[in-house]
Write a structure and sequence with these properties.
heterodimer, A: 415 residues, alpha/beta, Glycerol-3-phosphate (1)-acyltransferase, 2 domains, seven-stranded mixed sheet, two-stranded antiparallel ribbon, elongated, B: 374 residues, Rossmann fold, 12 helices, 13 strands, 38% helix
Chain lengths: 415, 374
């Protein structure tokens, strides 16, 4: 890095030295030319000092920025680091301007001796050098373990929230879901304003598609299109939540294990929550049963709404049924692995991991007007008949919307 | 340039004085001047004993143990009692009656599975049985039990935050089952003897600069075994918070069970990356075998019974303690783990740190990128 600066300086010097020598012959005044040379060397020295200072400053700044980014609060907190960086930055600016002024003054006095054309000082930030430096230290085998831990920590937040949601990881995976939302499944969301702007709400949807893609797409829809860009939590079935890698990953971007207690706590914390009362039965629906809603549990979601007073928002998904057309459920090997079923799709076991890629069907999400259950009061949750009747009503409403929309759908892939 | 808030010298000179004033609620409960204690040689018991010995209004601390406590003070009176022997209850009861003691802290409970399982089971179940007999005989007014949150067990069906009313399952590994038995004895005793206020504290795993329990050794071991693909949320309590909670419970008149836990949760993998050690992921089918092999070969102190704790949640809800006991943790789970790791690094270059000297002075602020959802 330093050598580069010197090289730059010396090349500049040589350039300047050559041009006055040519001027020397023209003016043929030895005293004047010596003065001029002195001035020029002074100027180049100032230039060198300025460059070195700038290099050092930018190196320190880069180091501090990296520290601030890496979540390592070993000697100072992030705010302190940022304030130091700001002050460094302003100080560098001051120093730069002062030195530049001095250099320009010398330059102009030298120019008054001779009309010397100097190239405008092009300042190249030492990014390439720095990254090369980083690569070299990164390849150091004694440094690899630290690098590994630093890299892993840079992908996660310092503090996850109480249910394991990790904002930094969420931002990291968001482009993938953004692609799926806008390009791959071309999701069209209707009735986004039915989700309240603040406060708790329980979204109840039809479940399908082997993996909870529908929940993530609803999360993306609310994040992108809702006026207050709310963070949605979705309930994940037990067997998916405790599936290696999948569960912990979903937990980090907003999935919570499906249970009454968890949903109630989230609702009491004024969060929008997505539940799928069909559960595994909906997730593992065969292709021939597509869009026929399975049993809506025993009405646990109704009881939740009655208890917490949160509005219930029915949501109808069109499209996720076709992303993994499940022809059959394999249960023998699945029970050996401890999961309810292994899906058999036209692609899955036959193409290996490539069979896990979902098909690009066209999606519609219809968010229906909220149902306010607070008029029944929290005591109504003990009324079994009412709870079951309300659950049936919600199921029928979603089913009706699905049927209505399927009537007008021409193609699975283009809508 | 650093704007880190420094403590003023007045604050530094007598921090204990302030805490004493804070933690002495004369209105809420009777201030016992004579306190009996079991399990004073354990890490947690040692901390509580130290705190009690510091308090000016405590005049005598009677310690029942097989081994004298490390802490020597004129207040501390040691009685050699083996809790597992027959007749321990009579001995303790007579000592309690003779010295007119009205409050007992039962801390003779293990912080996790150890190498000697049968001894642990005897001390926990039979020891508690004898202690409760002695309590009934001596007609004590107050009993504080220092338990742990692992009694809930790590099950796949656990909710994210387990409340005190969650039913205890007698399933699972032996060290959990023994503790569930202890808790059942306590509940039965509290029902049969309503004159005695039984207060059970369930501590999250205690971490801090000096802790040496199974979790602390896990994060400080050379290689850290973990279950491939599982990343549960963990919860810890800083040792200062644990001591504060225990002293709060001793001098209050609260009854029942309280989860005393630190703020927030922490994914296991973040903890491992913070410690900077080498993680060894083990696939689920061979997990138990590998864990018990490493345990047998003394590579680590984690028997196969600990495996579910690295797969599933065992996080308790500390709201009840905050509401009715007035216990507010000062440190988050992450800060507790950080204090442990920093102290271990300092220890490796020859500095030893007392409790409460490490950790961050400033407790976690809710607006520092952390949204307290629940």
């Amino acid at each position: 890095m330093h050598r580069a600066v010197e090289d730059k300086g010396s090349s500049r010097m040589s350039k300047k030295n050559t041009s006055p020598s040519s001027g020397n012959t023209e003016t043929s005044s030895t005293r004047k030319s010596r003065e001029q040379e002195d001035l020029l060397s002074l100027s180049s020295n100032v230039f060198k000092v300025r460059r070195t200072l700038l290099e050092q400053f930018s190196r320190i700044e880069r180091d501090m920025e990296k520290r601030a980014k890496m979540n390592r609060e070993q000697f100072a907190s992030r705010e302190e680091l940022n304030s130091v960086i700001d002050r460094l930055h302003s100080f560098r600016g001051e120093l730069d301007s002062v030195l530049l002024k001095i250099e320009e003054r010398i330059q102009s006095s030298a120019d008054s001796f001779q009309a010397l054309q100097t190239e405008p000082t092009e300042y190249t930030p030492a990014g390439g050098q720095g990254s090369l430096d980083e690569i070299v230290t990164g390849l150091n085998p004694f440094n690899l373990r630290r690098k590994y831990h630093e890299f892993s920590l840079s992908l996660r937040s310092e503090e996850v929230d109480a249910f394991g949601f990790d904002p930094i990881f969420d931002r990291f995976v968001r482009p993938i879901f953004e692609f799926l939302y806008t390009k791959y499944w071309r999701v069209e969301t209707y009735g986004i304003s039915n989700i309240p702007r603040n406060g708790a709400c329980l979204m109840v949807g039809n479940h399908s598609g082997s993996l909870p893609y529908d929940a993530t797409m609803l999360k993306m829809a609310v994040l992108k299109e809702h006026p207050s860009h709310r963070e949605v939590r979705f309930m994940v079935e037990d067997f998916l939540f405790h599936f290696p890698f999948l569960g912990s990953m979903m937990n980090r971007f907003g999935g919570v294990r499906a249970s009454q207690e968890n949903a109630q706590q989230l609702l009491q914390a004024q969060m929008p929550v997505v539940v799928f009362p069909e559960g595994v039965k909906g997730l593992g629906k065969l292709y021939r049963d597509k869009y026929h809603l399975a049993r809506f549990g025993r009405g646990g979601f109704i009881r939740l709404c009655l208890r917490t007073g949160a509005p219930l928002v029915p949501v109808a998904f069109i499209g996720p049924e076709e992303i993994h057309p499940m022809l059959a459920r394999e249960t023998f090997f699945a029970s050996m692995m401890g999961i309810p079923y292994v899906p058999i799709t036209p692609t899955f076991p036959w193409l290996g991991p490539a069979g896990l890629i979902p098909l690009p069907s066209k999606w519609f999400i219809h968010i229906l007007p909220p149902i306010d259950l607070s008029e029944y009061g929290p005591e109504a949750e003990k009324d079994r008949v009412l709870v079951y009747r309300l659950a049936q009503r919600v199921k029928n409403q979603i089913q009706e919307v699905i049927v209505e929309q399927l009537k007008n759908r021409r193609s699975i892939w283009f809508g | 340039m650093s704007k880190r808030p420094r403590k003023s010298p007045e604050e530094n000179s007598n921090p204990e004085q302030d805490e004493r004033n804070d933690e002495l609620p004369p209105t809420t409960g009777e201030v016992h001047s004579k306190i009996a204690m079991t399990g004073a040689s354990s890490f947690r018991g040692h901390l509580v004993l130290k705190r009690l010995a510091e308090l000016p209004h405590v005049r005598e601390i009677h310690v029942f143990d097989i081994k004298a406590p490390i802490l020597q003070a004129p207040k501390i009176i040691f009685h050699r009692v083996d809790l597992t022997r027959d007749g321990a209850d009579d001995l303790i009861a007579s000592l309690l009656l003779k010295n007119d003691i009205k409050c007992l802290v039962h801390g003779a409970l293990f912080s996790g599975p150890g190498r000697n399982g049968s001894l642990r089971r005897e001390v926990e179940t039979i020891g508690t049985f004898h202690i409760l007999n002695a309590l009934a005989e001596a007609k004590l007014e107050r009993c504080v039990v220092l338990g742990d949150t692992f009694v809930y067990g790590a099950h796949s069906q656990n909710p994210n935050f387990i409340s005190e009313s969650h039913p205890l399952k007698s399933a699972g590994p032996d060290f959990v089952r023994a503790r569930v038995d202890v808790e059942k004895q306590l509940i039965e005793f509290a029902k049969d003897y309503p004159n005695c206020e039984v207060c059970t504290l369930r501590f999250a795993p205690i971490l801090g600069p000096n802790s040496t329990n199974v979790r602390a050794r896990y994060f400080l071991a050379g290689i850290i075994p973990k279950v491939l693909g599982y990343d549960p949320l963990l919860q810890f309590i800083h040792e200062d918070d644990a001591t504060a909670a225990a002293s709060l419970a001793i001098f209050s008149n609260a009854r029942g069970t309280f989860n005393t836990v630190g703020k927030g949760v922490l994914p296991l993998s973040t903890g491992i990356h913070m410690s900077g050690r080498f993680p060894v992921p083990v696939a689920t089918p061979v997990c138990k075998t590998v864990f018990s092999l490493g345990f047998m070969m003394r590579i680590w102190d984690l028997p196969s019974a600990m495996v579910p704790f690295f797969q599933y949640l065992c996080v308790a809800d500390g709201h009840k303690a905050e509401k009715s006991l007035g216990f507010k943790p000062r440190y988050s789970s992450r800060q507790a783990l950080k204090a442990l790791i920093e102290a271990a690094r300092l220890r490796s270059v020859g500095f030893s740190m007392p409790s409460s000297a490490l950790g961050e002075e400033k407790p976690l602020q809710p607006d520092e990128g952390f949204v307290r959802v629940y």
